[in-house]
Structure formats: C-alpha cells, structure tokens
Amino acid sequence: MAGPTQLPSVRQVLSRVHFRVTLVAVAIAGLTVMLTGFAALGIYARQNLELIAQTASYSVAPALVFEDPDAARLAIEPLAESPGVAGIAVFGPSARPFAARIKSTPAAGSSIGWVAKSLFFPRPVAAPVTQGGRVIGEVRVEGDAAIVAGYIRAGLLGGLACLLLTAIATSLLARRLQEEIAVPLQAMAAVAHAVRVGRAFDRRAPRASIREIDTLRDDFNALLAELEEWHHRMRDENAALSHQATHDPLTGLPNRALLEQELSAVLERARREGTSFALLYADGDGFKAINDEYGHAAGDAVLVAIGRRLRKGLRASDVAARLGGDEFAILLAAPSGAEAVARASEGIALQMAAPIALPGGEQVVVGLTLGAAVYPRDGEDLAALVHHADLEMLTAKQGRPQHRKEGRK
Amino acid sequence: MLLALALSAIVPGSPEAPIPASDTRFAPGTEDSAVARTVGGIASYTRWPEPMATLRICVSGAARHADRLSEAARTAGRPATVRRLGIGAAPTGCDLLYLGPMRPAESLGMIRATHGRAILSIAESDPACRGGAMFCLAVSAASLSFRINIDAISRSTLRVDPRVQRVATLAGGGN
Questions:
Q1: Is B105 a member of any domain?
Q2: Which residue of B has its CA nearest to A133?
Q3: Considering the entire predicted model, what is its pTM?
C-alpha cells in the first residue's frame, strides 16, 4: 500500500508538469532557431565560398595565362585570408596544383568543427578559370567551418543556459502556484488533523485565493461547524447523564457513587502528601415518623432542607452527599482533623436547630446524629474509615431518644 | 618623357637594379613558344576599340623569338596572322607590333608611327622598358618576364586589363 509519504506533493506534481511543458517549448523553439540558423548560415557560408572562388578565379586568370605561379599565389593570398576559408588551390591543365595557399585552422581539429565541416563543406567549392570564354583551369576553395562550429557551440551552450533558466523558472512558478493551491490545502489538512487528534472543533480553514479551493474550504468549514455543534450537544448530554448518575435528584447532592469516587481521590492524595481528612456520617432523627405523619412530600421537604443546611458552611473542596433515605455523609477534605469535625458538628447542630417548614404549613425540628472518622487516626483505608464513622453514628444513635423533636405552632 | 617604370617605382628597392617582373618558366629550348603564349595572353587581356576577328601581328627588326608567334592564337583566343614589317615601314593593317632588336632611333620611329592607332606594341629586348613600347619582354634561358609601360598604355586607345598590370607589377614587387 502506498502511504501518504510515497505520494508526490502538489508542488512536486506542479513542478514536474511545468518542467515538462517548458522543456518541450524550449526544445521546440531552440531546435527551430538552431536548425534555421544552421541552414541560413550554411547557405551564406557556401555563397561566400562561391563568391571567393569566383573572385579568385577572376584574379588568378592572367597568372594562369602567363604561367606564373608566383603571381597566382600572390593573387589568391589575400582571398585565402578571408574568414571562412581554409585554403585555395589553383589548378591548371595538369593534375598538380598550379598554386595553393592553405591556412591551418585550429577549429578543423575539434570534433564540432569536423561535424560542421562535413555537414556544410563536404567538398571544396570549385570555380572554373576562363580566358576569353575558354576554360584554362579551376580554382578550388576549401571552407573553414570555424564560424559554423562557433555557432553550434554557442547554440549548445545557449540551449544549456535555457534549460537551466527553465529549471529555475519552473521552480519559482511551482512555488507560487504551491502558495495558491497547496498552502490552503495544507491549512485545511492541518485543521482536519487538529480536529481529529486534538478535538479542536473551533478551528476553521483560512480563505483561499482559488475559487474551487475556496468553495471546498467553505463546505469544509460548514461541516466543521455542524461537527462542532453535534459535539457540544453530545458533551452536554453526556454531562447531564453523568450528573444524573452521580447526584441525588431530590437534594441535588452528590450520591454515594460520587462520594466514594471523591473519597478515593482524597484518600489517595492524603496518603501521598501525608495529610489528614475527616468523614462524617449523618442520619436524620425520627425521619420515618415525619414520613408517616405528614406524608412523603413533607419527608422530601425535610430531606431537601437537610441537604441545603449541610452544604452551608462547607468549603468548596468539602463534599456533602446523600447516601440514601435520610442518611448523609460529609467529606471534610484535607487538611482537616478532629477540630474540623467538632466545628462541623457544632455548625450542623446549629443549623438543624432551626425548624423546617413543611408543605402543609407545619414546622418541624429534625436533629441529625453524626458519626465521624479521621484519617489516618481512625483507619488507613476507605472501608475502615466508613466502618468507624458508621459505628460511631450508631453508638450515638443508641444514646438518643428515638422519638422526634418537634415544634408545632 | 617616358616613365617606363612607373609601377616599379612605387615598390622599395633601387630602380637601377634589375627588377624581376612577370616570370614565366619554361623548358629549355621552348623560348619561342613561351613568347608566343605570353604575347597571345597580353593580347587576350587587351581590348581594341574596334572588335576584330583576327589578331594581325606585325614583326619588325631582328626578332630572335618570333618564329612561333602564330601560336599566340591559342592564348589570344582568336586566329592570328603573322607578317614581317620592314624597319621604318608604316604599321598599317597591324593590331600588334612586335619589335625585335633595332637601333633606338629606329625603334622610336616605329613606335611613334603607332601613336594614334589601335596598335599594341611589344618590345622583345628592352629590359628597362624605356623605348616607348607598351609591353617589354625579358627572355632568359629558362624564364620569360614582361614589364609594362603605363605611360604608353594610358596614351594609347587600347585598354589593358588591370589584372595583367597586376601580374607584372605584383610579380615585380613580390619577391
């Protein structure tokens, strides 16, 4: 399977496509110019040679007539010096040259010079020497391909330079296009990644400068907005469900499950940090009788009032929980000890001394029996602490009158 | 005044010293043929005011190399006739006057007679070319050269191809 890293990036693809297109264009243009240049240069070079041959033939004619090789050589010497000429030979009736002037040319040694020479001047250019309409000899001019070779060399170098420029221009172009195409796509990809990994639903892709990509971005952002809304609703529902699962619906206090959770956390921390904390158990006195006498609505009102009063005077880190029925528990978070227990007990007693108004208009006073356990004095683990607090509460309960204390108007 | 060496004068070197001019080499014993070739060649590069079909050559004086002058037809590019002309005779019916050795006064008279006529004058033995002939040959054992008298040419009605002058001049000044 091809992973994302093995796939080419937008920039690579753009660069490659650009390079190919430009390469083809440069190659076509360069070849056209080169070939046209070769052809034109070849024609001109040949015409030049023919002209030189004719000139040589004209000026060398008397020398042939008077059979004067020195004069012939002097006549062709200046012509042989012209650029593009490698040598001039004058032939009389015999096969041996009557006069010759050969220029040694360094370009003839190079391979490009050899190629140019065999392309353009495979044979010397010949012109007849005439006297009064009679052919008395021949002039042969050997071409020198140095100029053509120079042109070919310059053409090749120019082609190379064009290729280099092409590569640079392609790279720059690809970079620009990349900024317009790849950057917005990468931004979108980054947002998508942040949403998937970091749950950052509030992130949005920035605007793009290309219409199609911007449309994609709009849709992408709209999808993200829907996703965000859906995510928030889920979170709210989860929070509500979680609250329901951990709180007592009647009093709104944490339930036994949440208290145990908190206790575990507090115990853990107290163990780690070497601090102490306290757990209070509270049980309503004569609650059952109130239920029997005034009905369950009155019982509920009493429970709500107890819950509210227990919550009062506690620190934010303390937890008041309803364990079930008329049983409550208070966690006095660390640091707290026996004094905190005593203070809390007094506070609760003071709170509970005030009468509770029932829905029927009656007022009752409900006392709470407390039992406390202090970590680590009364137990090292949760079970021991709970047991101790429970036991202390039960002991306290046995000493109390089981009838309710009530005040009636 | 005859400025026979007008062209030689422009090149460095003493004018008194023998100045080599057009230099045609030939096999020993073929001097006469070489002379004929050169005379025909000179004629081929000379334009007469009236076009003519035949080159009429008149030979005068004690010419030593005029025996094969009819061969000049080949290099002249047209038929040639050769006629002897007595010293002092009027050069009527001549296109080319070939002057063999003679006394300077005789030579001068012959050349004067060509003035005003379309006659090409060639002196066989006037190395300095001061006798007034338009062309002067210099024949040695193995080579033949000629010089040009620019004054004489410019005074005549004939037109000589500058290339011929160049052959003579350049060869004279080159080596």
A1: yes
A2: B77
A3: 0.56
